[in-house]
Amino acid sequence: MTTVAAYAAPAAKAPLERTTIERREVGEFDVLIDIKFAGICHSDIHQAREGWGEAIFPMVPGHEIAGIVSEVGSGVTKYQVGDRVGVGCMVDSCRECENCKAGLEQYCLKGQTGTYNAVDKNGEPTYGGYSEKIVVDESFVLRIPDGLSLDVAAPLLCAGITTYSPLRHWNAGPGKKVAILGMGGLGHMGVKLAHALGAEVTVLSQSLRKKDDGLKLGADHYYATSDPQTFKDLYGSFDLILSTVSAPLNLDRFLSLLKTDGAFVNVGAPEEPVSLNLFSVIAGRKTLAGSGIGGIRETQEMLDFCAEHGIGAEIELIDADGINDAYERVLGSDVRYRFVIDAATI
Predict the structure, then answer these.
(1) pLDDT digit string, tens, across residues 78-95
(2) What's residue 266's pLDDT?
(3) Mean pLDDT across the chain, nearest whole number?
(4) CA 48 → CA 52, 101, 303, 336, distances in Å?
(5) Alpha-carbon distance 169 to 159, whole Å?
(6) pLDDT band at residue 193 using 50, 70 and 90 as cut-offs
(7) What is the pLDDT of residues 145-166, one digit of tens each?
(8) What's the predicted TM-score (pTM) here?
(9) pLDDT tens readout for residues 224-250
(10) Phi and psi at residue 173, in whole multiples of 5°?
């Protein structure tokens, strides 16, 4: 076991504080990563505050991890010391079910193992990226292409793949009208990726406050959802709406913006249940769907796509002692557009 410094929430809703944790010894197929940067995802806050249900404490959040390989196990074939790598939202799965075999480890039928707030196959709690080092099986490590800086690549491991996967699955591309609902950590990546895929991109945001940013990042249009006229002007407009919002929405209003056979896909996960009138999907043969992250293969595809198109996250780099302030700013939508922790300050 190796002792490393980390920032952890000691209990639900408690401020994060500096502590130490134990990392397992490097096994035959393990990779030891010196963490350089770790993104702050809204889901870190949901889990550290038990917004999504009972959690495991102490909790070291962080599943947007970028770093450098410093040691490999004797059986490792994919990586070597010095490689630039990333770790996303999961660090293991059963690897045997039909989903795992299809490269959909994120939907493992026995449950994938989260990078933090989970229990690994040895019965030990997993700890995430707000730490100096992490040990991960090589099968769940990603290669960060040379064209991507590690700091702007870190958020791609969650915010990037969470938006890329549904955009690819629902065929966002030339000739398709795609709306990104919410212009935050996920939403700004959705705009960049949908634009790079060739779709006509519209941002739907509460206000026009971030309009200039949205257009600069690749949006063709930008509308305020606080304006009732928006729902009249855009009625029946979109092939796909990707909702990155983690607050309850009036789904019926947004479903009215879809074309026949359009899809409204949720990647934001509100803590409260939502309701809808089923006629909103029956009329127009519309789809209300959800999407998780991506599998390992698709996540690597996304990283390579981002390198090819020069896409990284828009980040605000912070020291580790600013994590609690950053959480409050995320909740206040006061970040453009992803906080990233400089792990050297942990």
Answers:
(1) 999 999 999 999 999 999
(2) 97
(3) 97
(4) 9, 32, 27, 22
(5) 16
(6) very high
(7) 999 999 999 999 999 999 999 9
(8) 0.96
(9) 999 999 999 999 999 999 999 988 999
(10) 175, -165
d(CA 250, CA 108): 31
Distance in angstroms (rounded) separating the CA atoms of residues 26 and 71: 8
Q: What is the DSSP string of 185-252?
A: HHHHHHHHHHHHTT-EEEEEESSSTTHHHHHHHT-SEEEETTSHHHHHHTTT-EEEEEE---S---HH
Question: CA 111 to CA 94: how far, in whole Å?
Answer: 7
Mean pLDDT, residues 187-199: 98
Render 62-96 in DSSP notation, one character per residue. ---EEEEEEEE-TT--S--TT-EEEE-SEEE--S-
Q: Quote the Cα angle for 303-101-292, to 5°.
A: 50
Q: Which residue has the tokens 């958020």?
A: 155
Rounded CA gap, 303 and 291, in Å? 18
The dihedral through the CA atoms of 34, 36, 40, 41 has a sign that is negative
Give CA–CA dist 62/6, Å, rounded: 11
Q: Look at the block and give the residue holding tokens 């933090």.
A: 116
End-to-end Cα, the chain, rounded Å: 19
Q: Which residues contact 202 (CB under 8 A, 6 or more apart)?
A: 177, 178, 179, 180, 219, 220, 221, 222, 223, 234, 237, 238
User: What CA–CA distances, in Å, run from 120 to 81, 170, 186, 247, 274?
Assistant: 25, 32, 27, 30, 32
Is 122 strand, coil or helix? coil
Helix, strand, or coil here: 261?
Answer: strand
Structure tokens at 49: 């505050």
Instruction: Please give the backbone phi and psi of residue 38, each rounded to the nearest 5 degrees, phi first.
Output: -140, 125
| Distance from C-alpha of 168 to C-alpha of 265, rounded to nearest angstrom | 12
The helix/strand/coil state of 275 is: coil
Examine the pLDDT at 270 and tell me if it is beyond 90. Answer: no
